[in-house]
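Hey, can you fold this one?
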Amino acid sequence: MSGQKLDAIDIEIMRASLEGIVLEMQNSLFRTGYSTIIRESQDASCAIMNARGKVIAQHVVLPLHIGSFPACCDAVLRDYGEDIAEGDAFLINHPYEGGSPHAPDMCVLTPAFHDGKLIAFCASIAHKSDIGGPVPGSCSGQARETYNEGLHLPAVRYQRGFQRNLEIERIIAANSRTPELVLGDIRGQLGSARLGERRLLELVNKFGIERASASFDRLLQLATIRMKAAIAEWNDGVYEAERFVDDDGVDLEKPVRIHVRVEKKGDSIRFDLSGSADQTRGPANIRPPVVRGACAYCLIALTDPHTFINSGLFDAFEIVAREGSMMNPRFPAPVNTYNPTVHALVECIFAALTNIAPAKARADGCGSRSIIIGGRSTYTGKGYVQYEILGGGAGARATKDGQSGTSINQSNAKIAPVEILESEFPTRVTRFELIPDSGGAGEYRGGLGIRREYVNLADARFSIRSTKHVIAPNGVSGGNKGATGDILINPGQDSEKRLPTRYADYPLRQSDTFRLVTPGGGGSGKPFERDPQRVLNDVIEGYVTPQKALADYGVAIERSGNAWRINESVTRDARAANTK
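Sure. Predicted structure:
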């Protein structure tokens, strides 16, 4: 295979073909998903790996999974070795045995064979609505060990000779509050992987096995080469930054520190996370495969988003994650509300690398959050889990405003439509809107957070895993912080209650209301340097109120008939006073 001559056209055709296969797998998975988590939120991703478990193609929906797929595949290769045959399929969701970010993220892998020889694996990782544990949705913000986080499967054989292992399905079903949804989604993952196998073998037969295998290896090499070349253009140096998450869900009112020390020399870069906090008692820890995926994501975002996305990226950088820290916890430390910690890590890395690539500077964003409501449907009599992923404001960039009401960074899931929620769950959404003034002021404004209010139509159990309800998103280059988030039960009533950032198993009653407020993004650049015309447009669009336009930007906006206009003299005086 090493003697195969490959030109740039061969490589590009192979790269595009592999990405097309993975995209087709992804579309199949979303269209056959049983749960709203997969059908609507699209909390899943697909990949193709070579016979050694290295990702050679991934359709980037959830960037962190580029670190998770190899770790899951390594577990299959380690546990089954030579006993892997055509027609097999494997399941794994154990964060310590494999690489799932948390146990609800279940990986399905199928080996692809050509003339009796293992050549690749096709796989997907998808979030499950419920895998047991003490709370609906299996994401307890108060978990103190992985045993509180639901059913954990090491690498197990799910199919042999294309026949499902029904005993495994019975075990999974017996441990879930929503067995039909979970098994339906797993079978959808299986179908997606089998589709990938067929398309991959068609591609290999077209190219020939030797050329295809050589192309797989070359794509990995090129990913390393291209990333190292981009890193080599940056200034050498040592840069540090830190960020905090509000708490770990157990030790409330105790912020948890993430620290990174970036050492860049030549075409080498090293991320030292040793200064981060010790592993937490609550589920704010993250495992090394997730750390690796986060670092890769940051480098891609700061260099070339169109670069080759595969495991070759991991050879372009080094990670130091101290054992026993929240970046490399010891088993059985809990990990299920990992995503807020990853957001803090990503923003920490971006802050450090701003010194290297100032043109790519960005303010902090809203982080991530999910709400989980579980109970028994009054319509069907069956258990249900309403799981939603919600974004907010993105941080402003060096030359652009942040986007509003969106998922940010590595959280790339969609917000479920109101119509779907109300048709499938006993809930009503009474408000869904952007929040004026929630984006941090700056020459470039942070994106706006969202306000979403619900009426609960049946007794249920409520959990949230969120971030930045206490510690606001930072601005950059003189920009202001974004607004913080909040979660209120029965707002404005005598029974009003504010929940912590992470909370599990609050008893919602029929007719209870709750309001989720998500953070806005931080601003970039000094607010008084924002073009007054852009401030006027913000007021017209409802992003900024006239009061904040004057207070934060020094721009006086007033009504003139039915239109808004800038009061030039007041604006001139306000901005002049700010420069004194």
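The chain has a mean pLDDT of 94. Let me know if you want another pass with a different chain boundary.
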